[in-house]
Design goal:
CATH topology of the largest domain: Rossmann fold
Structural class: alpha/beta
Number of strands: 10
Radius of gyration: 20 Å
Strand order of the largest sheet: 3-2-1-4-5-6-7-8
Distance between the termini: 37 Å
Oligomer: single chain
Bound molecules: 1,4-dihydronicotinamide adenine dinucleotide
CATH class of the largest domain: Alpha Beta
Largest sheet: 8 strands, mixed
């Protein structure tokens, strides 16, 4: 049975939405939790201590252990990790969940939006993980659960957001190789759940209502708890999850086309074969991945 007795977890962006749900579930399963949240708007402006304070109060009222931290994941990741060490003396689990979303067509000040998304999503995830790393090694059962997105499939006017989520996918898959010999497992979720972010997104109103009725954050958090647990059996994977469904998000290659006399014309002539979905093979799990092509 999954238990976090004796474990210390950080959940970033845990003042609302998915993060609040993850923090409450981990605390109810015995974890001591740092509830981090900057408390800004869904697009990444402003700050408030109220969201994190409220979640901490709820956890303590339910008999759990939690402290609040109000640092931005991109500005002071070390401060978030210091909160865990100061309050609880160790750190076993990092759930990188904090996020923002600004819809932005690829025009005008698009680069400012790309930088902002990379700062919060990617540098936030990488920064908190880097600050936590020595403590996760010391834990012997360190766990990192990152948050990417099903929008990786592509989404109009979301280039900044989806690009940053793509960086998190690559970070997860790659760092997992270094975590493995250290007892650290790094996985990600690609969730869908009703939240402030989804409420403010440019989505059809009937889909938003469907999300409110059928896709609660509480049905995503069990996947996070599994991936954060000592018994988690997987590493370097992305699990797409919504409404109680959990699926492997697959990266892979197909059989393609090969010719040692390759020309641009031949690429064009064989483009159907090159895109043939029927020959797709997913990448193996990282413990079975063949890295000989990159000399490892
Ligand atoms: P939300 O807007 O309800 O919650 C996000 C929380 O992150 C907020 O409380 C906010 O104050 C906090 N935050 C933002 N920037 C921060 C920073 N720099 N430092 C610390 N905290 C910060 O959004 P939601 O939906 O709960 O999103 C949580 C995560 O799940 C995000 O990474 C989001 O991109 C991801 N996600 C959500 C989906 C959904 O369907 N709700 C779909 C795919 C991904």
């Amino acid at each position: 049975m999954v238990s976090f007795e004796g474990k210390v977890a950080i959940v970033t962006g845990a003042g609302r939405g998915l993060g609040a749900s993850h923090a409450k579930l981990l605390a109810s399963l015995g974890a001591s939790v740092v509830v981090n949240d900057l408390g800004g708007s869904a697009t990444g402006t402003g700050a408030s201590t109220a969201p994190a304070e409220e979640v901490v109060a709820e956890i303590i009222a339910a008999g759990g252990r939690a402290v609040a931290n109000f640092d931005s994941v991109s500005e002071n990741p070390e401060g978030i990790v210091a909160s865990a060490i100061d309050a609880f003396g160790k750190l076993d689990v990092v759930v990188n969940n904090a996020g923002i979303n600004q819809a932005h067509a690829f025009e005008g000040d698009i680069m400012a939006s790309i930088r902002k998304h990379m700062e919060v999503h990617f540098y936030g995830t990488a920064g908190v993980t880097a600050a936590a790393w020595p403590h996760l090694i010391a834990s012997g059962e360190g766990r990192v659960v990152n948050t990417t997105s099903p929008t990786l499939v592509g989404f109009p006017e979301q280039t900044p957001y989806v690009s940053a989520k793509g960086a998190i996918l690559a970070f997860t898959r790659t760092l997992a190789f270094e975590g493995a010999p250290l007892g650290i497992k790094i996985n990600a979720i690609a969730p869908t759940a009703a939240s402030r972010m989804s409420d403010e997104a440019d989505l059809p109103e009937d889909f938003k209502q469907f999300m409110r009725d059928n896709l609660p954050a509480s049905l995503v958090s069990p996947v996070v708890a599994y991936l954060a647990s000592a018994g988690c059996a997987i590493n370097g994977e992305v699990l797409e999850t919504q409404g109680g469904a959990v699926k492997r998000f697959v990266l892979g290659l197909n059989g393609g086309y090969a010719n040692t006399e390759l020309t641009a014309d031949l690429v064009g002539e064989h483009i159907a074969e090159i895109l043939d979905a029927s020959t797709h093979v997913p990448f193996a799990t990282i413990d079975q991945q063949d890295l000989s092509a990159v000399g490892k």
